Amino acid sequence: PKSSPKSSPKSSPKSSPKSESSTSVHGGHLAEPTDQSKRSLCQEAASLADAESTALARSHERTEAKLRLAESALADGASTSAYEEEKRSALKVQLKSLTENFASRDGLLQRASASLGDHLNKLSFLITRLDGGTAEDQRTADMVKQLLKKVQQHRASLAQWRSKASESRSAVEAADGQVLNMLDESLRRRGHRLVQLRAEAKYLSVLAHAKESEEPASGRVLCADGRKV
Fold first, then answer.
1. Is the CB of residue 112 less than 8 Å from the CB of residue 154?
2. Residue 180, Cβ neighbours under 10 Å: how many?
3. Angle between helices 35-130 and 135-213 in degrees, nearest 10
4. How far is it, in rounded angstroms, from Cα 160 to Cα 113?
5. Three-state SS string across 188-209, please?
6. What residues are paired with 222 via a beta bridge?
7. How high is the pLDDT of residue 181?
8. What pTM was estimated for this model as a whole?
9. Is residue 154 a contact partner of residue 116, using CB atoms and an 8 Å limit?
10. What separation, in Å, do the N-terminal and C-terminal C-alpha atoms of the chain show?
11. Which residues are CB-neighbours of 102 under 8 A, at least 6 positions away?
């Protein structure tokens, strides 16, 4: 008997390298970055870090400059306020002293005028007694009349002096009052400004400290070789 021919087994088709490469790409697997691309990324990160560090340094310098200006303005304002407060206190003392002196002088003038008035009354009474008397009494009466006239002139001068003294007192008190009002207003405004400057200086001090310790965000990036940029 003849043996039947053996059927040769079918060989499975082999996949080509091209198809494997295509399958790996289309399957979503990306190729590992090369050393050159790593260096490029690292350099780019380093460049960004340098730029950010420069920006932070400039921002810190600006904040420090503003803080120095605020502190200087605060010191100048405090010094000026102390000076104005000293001047206001001195002016109040002077005004009080002037007021007391004016009152004392006015009292003296008033008492002098009253005393002269008493003398005028006495002289007038003496003239009344001497008029119509002897020739000697008449000569005495004429002398008393001259004295009476001088006392009247002196009393009138005292009255004018007292009036001028009262006017000068009013002028001085008004001028000093205006200066005191101006100092009070200046101190009030400066006080508000000092409160603002203290708050501003405190804020800038905290901000400057924060900026001094702040690091750029890119500084947290590590290169492939472990170098921080």
1. no
2. 15
3. 170
4. 11
5. HHHHHHHHHHHHHHHHHHHHHH
6. 228
7. 92
8. 0.53
9. yes
10. 87
11. 165, 169, 172
- Taking residue 88's Cβ as centre, other Cβ atoms within 10 Å add up to 17
Encode pLDDT of 28-65 as tens digits: 454 566 667 766 777 777 777 777 778 878 888 888 88
Residue 194 token pair? 């000092």
- 169-173 long-range CB contacts below 8 Å, 24 or more apart? 169/98, 169/99, 169/102, 169/106, 172/98, 172/102, 173/95, 173/98, 173/99
Structure tokens at 100: 């007391």
Q: Which residue has the tokens 């000569």?
A: 139
The rounded distance, in Å, linking the Cα atoms of 6 and 150 is 174
